[in-house]
Specification:
alpha/beta; 8-stranded parallel barrel; 11 helices; 9 strands; about 40% helix
């Protein structure tokens, strides 16, 4: 009897800890925590599972990813599903535009992996993903602003409103007009290309008008002095997010650069540019690197 009670209590503790994890990540974001680096996994763990698959998302969380980036499209019958492309041709065994296919028909095809090989996995709905990941990690919903009211309704239904990050290139005025009252719940991060001539004024406008939790910054080359400038000027105000998927997004300090010399890849972004959120296609490798430096739980 005592053993059964102990196991029940242990299970409750484990479940409570899992459910608390998303809140803890959100708290680190809201507090502008610079003592650790938050890992965002691009389209889940697509190196081992199909991109945007439920299995890939859960495995990325298991690896230690804090934020999972996923993409949304809407079916002909109005269901939100995870799909990067407007068509299902590249990532599934079927063909056609998502907006022209019903959910039942999409359920009949199988997802392909990164080598275009058929798998047993199916296209998940947003609702299914939210339920399966509730409390386990934050989700960055890409391409979601097209269906924002519907997304918010599903978030409310599933009790996951505080679990979502959204990003975009809209102006501060447009963000406030578009997202309105939801900005108290959903974390919004502006995307600013530092190679554009108005980049400085855009960032300052956002800082003054919205005080964002973080900025996603983009730049092609270290000849651009703005990454270093804003590493200093945003300190204590907003965290900095870099995508290390491709070299032109992070000045040549991307995932592939990290495979050759991690100090010139992720290390450069962390130490020189004060980056505290990294979106990667190699979540396990990044988590292990950060843990080795004491920068990730």
């Amino acid at each position: 009897m005592k053993t059964r009670i102990f196991l029940a209590l242990l299970l409750c503790a484990v479940l409570a800890n899992a459910q608390d994890r998303a809140d803890k990540i959100r708290e680190r974001l809201l507090n502008r925590d610079t003592n650790s680096v938050i890992v965002a996994s691009h389209r889940g763990d697509w190196r081992n599972f199909p991109e945007n698959s439920l299995e890939g998302i859960l495995n990325a969380i298991k690896m230690g990813a804090d934020i999972i980036e996923i993409d949304l499209q809407r079916t002909a019958d109005g269901e939100l599903v995870l799909m990067h492309d407007a068509t299902i041709d590249r990532t599934t065994t079927g063909k056609g535009r998502v907006e022209d296919i019903t959910l039942d028909s999409i359920r009949k095809v199988n997802l392909r992996n990164g080598l275009a090989i058929r798998t047993t996995q199916k296209v998940p709905t947003l609702r299914e993903v939210l339920v399966a990941t509730k409390g386990k990690a934050m989700l960055n919903l890409d391409k979601a602003d097209r269906y924002f009211e519907q997304v918010m309704s599903i978030l409310a239904e599933t009790g996951t409103t505080h679990q979502v990050v959204m990003k975009g290139s809209k102006s501060a005025a447009d963000v406030k007009a578009f997202f309105g009252k939801y900005l108290n719940d959903v974390i919004y991060m502006p995307i600013v290309n530092l190679d554009h001539k108005n980049a400085e004024s855009e960032i300052l406008q956002f800082v003054n008008d919205m005080n964002p939790v973080a900025f996603e910054l983009l730049y092609k080359s270290d000849s651009n002095k703005l990454p270093g400038k804003f590493a200093r000027e945003l300190e204590g105000k907003s965290l900095i997010w870099y995508n290390t998927l491709w070299e032109f997004m992070a000045g040549g300090h991307e995932d592939d650069a990290s495979l050759i010399d991690v100090n010139n890849g992720w290390g450069y972004l962390i130490d020189r540019l004060q980056c505290r959120i990294i979106q990667t296609d190699r979540p396990q490798m990044l988590v292990e690197y950060l843990r080795g430096r004491g920068l990730h739980d």
